[in-house]
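Subject: two folds for Thursday's group meeting

Dear M.,

Sorry for the delay on this. The cluster queue was jammed most of the week, so I only got both jobs back this morning. I'm pasting them in the order they finished. Each block is the input sequence followed by the predicted structure tokens. Could you check whether the formatting survives your parser before we put anything on slides? The first protein is the one we discussed after the seminar.
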Amino acid sequence: MTKTYQRHDLSIDQRLALKTAATNLQREFAETFGLETIERFLHSSYDEFAGRATIIKFLPLLAERFARQRLQALAKAEGLSHDERPTVLFLCTHNAGRSQMALGFFTHLAGEQAVAWSGGSEPASEVNPAAVAAMAECGIDISTEFPKPWTDEVVRAADVVITMGCGDACPVFPGKRYEEWVLEDPAGLDLESTRPIRDEVERRVRGLLNDIGATPLHSTVR
């Protein structure tokens, strides 16, 4: 039985886009999860963004991307995935600056050697423009990323959890390696003031990659 959204009015285009998203996810995860689980994750992911989105036409795409990440995490957490690569989760308060820059550097430098996700305890409505610009100076595009919350399955699937200022709001699960990176929050800062934070994030990410046995694959430009 197809579920409906009770809190958000959907246009015809949105309904069609969500139907396409459900089909895509079912095709990808059919051998791992049932239809009910896939739709539940898609629907809850949509609701997560619908409550704070400023541009609603992208909601189905964001919901599909977030649901895919969550299903991948659930598969790993429950031992249903054959992906044994180290997985790192970067957490900060708004998932708009520090954790997004860390994710950008990690993905760029690790390649296929490891997996990284990011999240926030109080997700913002968009990624910090100064962080986007600072990363672009390094040849890394994070403009298509989006702030999102952390979820239980994502934390459970992570081998290493890096926290950046979210304090008691950051989740603590037994058996995980936790590190707190003390970094200034770039929220409200201009590009010039964001650059030193970006450079420190890169330094720490490179050190983390060495710790988990992943060799940085690229240099970064300035």
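Second protein, same layout:
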Amino acid sequence: MEERVVLAALQEYGRTGWSGFTMDAVARRAGVGKSTLYLRWPSKEVLIRYAIVQHSEPLTLTDNGSLREDIMALATSLMRYFLDPAGWASLRITMDEAAEHTDLDRVHAHLIAMHREAASTLFQRAIERGELTSDAPIRTITEALYGAVLMHILTLTTDERAAAVEHIDEDVAPIVELLLATIAAAASSTTDAV
């Protein structure tokens, strides 16, 4: 029952965002009584926090041996995450928190920390391998990667999003290649200037 409720909460939040998210709607979607929800989660804030934390595992990436392979792995994980109800709901939480106070600032902070840590680890390895300089604009590179993956997903229709799980590597490869070309060009122009 708990897993049904958690999934229903993620789907409902992903569909409506903060303003339309209600315990009634979650109970209907999960096929349980509203009183059952309130026994476990005293408010919609507590429920969505719980659901997001349960389904937003940290993005931990193994060392794939190169910046290209590490970025490819992160982009693939990101796309898979954003195609999942938890990822979609986390995107809505981020947008809602930016637009208005939602009482979800701790969830928002958890999501930001999870993503920053994964990217930071990836780029630190690249610096240690000599693939990036220590003054590389890591935050900008991270935002470019996240932004490109997210914009790609937002341009897909509902049917295309459902099918995208089958060919994630094909979808993220051009994004990764463009990002790597941009990093290489920036590094080259910095070297030429010196």
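Two things I noticed about the second structure. The chain has ten helices and no strands. The chain has two domains: 2-53, 57-193.

Cheers,
T.
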